[in-house]
């Protein structure tokens, strides 16, 4: 029940990074899951989605308390959360997978999710270096400031961790309070994220570029 408060099916290992942690978000909080129907395949019929996924992805399977099957597909520096209906993928008989888009209102959101999910099959995705944006840097620094505060670090030590010792010392020795005020704002933002604002990052793609 405690995990459900955070929108999780259960708590992942907090020591793992975002790519390694088995974080299964609830559908109510995280709409950017891939929905698939699992059905029996015909004689001599193969399923390209199944064959390619098993061949290149690390797969984590999770069955929730209602018996619903969820999967995390990890590959090429990407993580996809998949929700399956129909047959169990653990069944011994051959299966085929079909994407589900069952609502016109959510068509564009689900289409964007599928387009982004294709990155797991693209070997170039892992070699691409993500570019930090001003927004993503502010979110990162907010979490760094929160971690530093919880570890008993001062604002100066937090600034040194983010910007390096030389730049932080120059800022602290100058009459300007810009970096000092930035560290205070970062900590306040980190507390907001911890206390629930993180859920805004889990919404539709256009509102959650940080989770690309």
Can you characterise this structure?
- The protein has seven helices and five strands, in the order H-E-H-E-E-E-E-H-H-H-H-H.
- It is α+β, with helices and mostly antiparallel strands.
- The chain folds into two domains: 2-127, no CATH class; 134-206.
- It has a five-stranded mixed β-sheet.
- Helix 4 packs across helix 7, helix 5 crosses helix 6 (165-173) and helix 5 (155-163) crosses helix 7 (178-194).
- The two termini are 28 Å apart.
Q: Proportion of β residues?
A: 15-25%
Biggest β-sheet, characterized?
5 strands, mixed
Helix and strand pattern = HEHEEEEHHHHH
Summarize model confidence as the mean pLDDT: 86
**Quick one: how many beta strands?**
5
Query: How far is the first residue's CA from the last residue's CA?
Result: 28 Å
Q: What is the 3D form? A: elongated
- Total number of helical segments? 7
Strand arrangement in the largest pleated sheet: 2-3-4-1-5
Category from helices, strands and their pairing: alpha+beta
Helical content band: 25-40%
Runs in which pLDDT lies below 50 for 5 or more consecutive residues are 208-212
Question: Radius of gyration, Cα only, in angstroms?
Answer: 21 Å
How many domain units?
2
What order do the helices and strands come in, and which of them pair?
Elements: H1 2-5, E1 34-40, H2 48-56, E2 58-63, E3 69-75, E4 78-86, E5 95-99, H3 107-117, H4 134-150, H5 155-163, H6 165-173, H7 178-194
Helix pairs in contact: 4-5, 4-7, 5-6, 5-7
